[in-house]
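Tokens for chain A. Residues wanted.
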């Protein structure tokens, strides 16, 4: 019986396309005090793209953190303006069966009809991972919080 459960679990993971975990570090994240005001999801692989991204999508031009793009690439996900009570988490980065990256994120927000804090926030995450020439897909789970 145990052997069948292990085989079934392995099959579920294989069908889901879950590959190995990819290490990353969060360069910037949170809800307030950030520069990322517009909704975006993107991968930045060069210094030129980083400077263009920072000038176009942020409220802090010229203050971009240093990144060694010969070794790293930046993964950016920002929700844009949200009401209080909303949060964003980068859960993990993994590889699919083809070796492409899958960025797994979770958003949390008060359920419809619930009152969250009356403030405006800008949830975002900027993560660094090893530079590679593969496709990157973002998968976001949405969770509703109880009132």
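Reply:
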């Amino acid at each position: 019986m145990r052997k069948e459960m292990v085989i079934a679990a392995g099959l579920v993971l294989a069908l889901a396309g879950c590959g190995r975990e990819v290490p990353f570090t969060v360069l910037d994240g949170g809800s307030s005090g950030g520069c990322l005001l517009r909704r975006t999801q993107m991968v930045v692989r060069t210094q030129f793209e980083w400077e263009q991204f920072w000038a176009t999508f942020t409220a802090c031009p010229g203050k971009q953190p240093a990144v060694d793009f010969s070794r790293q690439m930046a993964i950016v996900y920002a929700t844009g303006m949200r009401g209080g009570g909303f949060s964003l988490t980068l859960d993990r980065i993994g590889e699919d069966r083809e070796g492409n990256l899958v960025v797994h994120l979770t958003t949390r927000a008060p359920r419809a009809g619930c009152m969250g804090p009356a403030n405006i926030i800008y949830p975002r995450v900027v993560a660094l991972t090893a530079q590679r020439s593969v496709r990157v897909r973002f998968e976001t789970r949405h969770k509703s919080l109880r009132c």
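Helices lie at 2-16, 47-57. Residues 111 and 144 are 5 Å apart (CA to CA).
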